[in-house]
Amino acid sequence: MTQKLLIIGASRGIGLETVRAALAANYSVRAFARNISKITLAHENLEKVSGDALNADHIKRALEGIDVVIQTLGVSVNLQMVTGPINLFSNATRVLVSNMERAKMKRLIAVTGFGSGHDGRRLIPPLQRIGFEIFLGRVYSDKNIQENLIKASSLDWTIVRPGILTSGKTTGDYYILVKPENWRNGLISRADVADFIVKQIDNPTHIKQTPVLVGSFRFPHI
Ligand SMILES: NC(=O)c1ccc[n+]([C@@H]2O[C@H](COP(=O)([O-])OP(=O)(O)OC[C@H]3O[C@@H](n4cnc5c(N)ncnc54)[C@H](OP(=O)(O)O)[C@@H]3O)[C@@H](O)[C@H]2O)c1
User: Fold this and answer.
1) Binding site membership of 26 for ligand 1 (Cβ less than 6 Å)
2) DSSP of 109-148, one letter per residue?
3) pLDDT score, position 78
4) Residues 7, 31: contact at Cβ < 8 Å?
5) 93 Cβ closer than 6 Å to some ligand 1 atom
6) In what order do the strands lie in the sheet with 174-177?
7) Pocket probe mutation, ligand 1, options 95, 165, 183, 184, max atoms within 8 Å of Cβ
8) How confident is the model at residue 33, as a pLDDT?
9) In angstroms, rounded to a whole number, what is the distance separating the alpha carbons of residues 50 and 33?
10) According to the model, what pLDDT value does residue 195 have?
């Protein structure tokens, strides 16, 4: 039987690309976001659900009948990213993980980013780290809490840490860097991140791993 996916953060970006890729791969998709009117796709296997990832009742309902959950939440680029506080990632993940565990669900694929996690942040090269701390420090501190909540759960999780996102096409030509000594920042299209996520559904080769994803252009390690 076709697996049914819940994509949280499906109205744009990686989430919307994952909706597209999952439908093309014949999965059934429940696309969840606050502004679902932005999802102009129509497909017999696509269900659009409007909801807030911070609302436990919305999430509990969205999880009904779902086999695999994909979390691709993001915050808008604005002054709050720098001045904070940012707690969307941790608060939404608390709601999601507890409801998945209660429902005895297992599979979660969550997107964070290059530099996320205490291991990831430590390995950002010094020059890149200055801008990272100023502009993304608060966002990634909350993503660290998000990752810790996922890692401490009973779920079969994969945490995907893409490099800098572009709006390019699917190429299938990207690096999946699992070992910390290989981690490098670079560019990758949202469509390629979606390609990786969808391939992890039937072929879950990265359970309990935090792969960095980058395309063929990678930054020098300075
Ligand atoms: N930009 C980069 O270079 C970069 C690099 C690495 C990692 N990342 C990370 O990759 C992730 C995806 O980024 P993106 O640019 O592809 O997507 P994005 O444009 O940030 O989209 C975020 C999605 O989250 C949804 N969302 C936000 N708050 C929500 C809430 N309370 N309830 C339900 N849905 C909510 C939004 O939908 P609604 O507003 O309709 O609810 C939207 O669909 C982010 O976590 C980002 O930090 C970005």
Assistant:
1) no
2) EEE--TT-HHHHHHTS-HHHHHHIIIIIHHHHHHHHHHHH
3) 82
4) yes
5) no
6) 46-50, 28-33, 4-8, 68-71, 107-111, 156-162, 212-215, 174-177
7) 165
8) 98
9) 5
10) 98
Gap from CA of 1 to ligand 1 centroid (Å): 30
Q: How far is the CA of 175 from the centre of ligand 1 (A)?
A: 22
Residue 160 Cα distances to 127, 200, 217, angstroms: 23, 11, 18
Nearest atom within ligand 1 for CA of residue 75:
20
CA angle 152–183–91, rounded 5-degree value: 35
Percent of the chain residues past pLDDT 90, beyond the cut:
82
Tell me: pLDDT of 221 over 80: no
Checking if the pLDDT of 1 tops 80, the result is no
Q: Report the pLDDT averaged over residues 176-183.
A: 94
Q: 11 CB less than 6 Å from ligand 1?
A: yes
Cβ-based burial of 5 (10 A; exposed 0-12, middle 13-18, buried ≥19): buried
Q: What's the whole-number mean pLDDT along residues 99-106? A: 98
Q: Phi, psi at residue 42, to the nearest 5°?
A: -135, 135
d(CA 15, CA 33): 9
Domains of the chain, CATH where assigned: 4-215 (3.40.50.720)
Residue 222 corresponds to which tokens in the numbers above?
Answer: 């300075």
Give me the pLDDT at residue 222, please.
Answer: 67
Please identify, by atom number, the ligand 1 atom nearest to the C-alpha of residue 53: 32
Q: Which residue, by CA, sits nearest to atom 14 of ligand 1?
A: 13
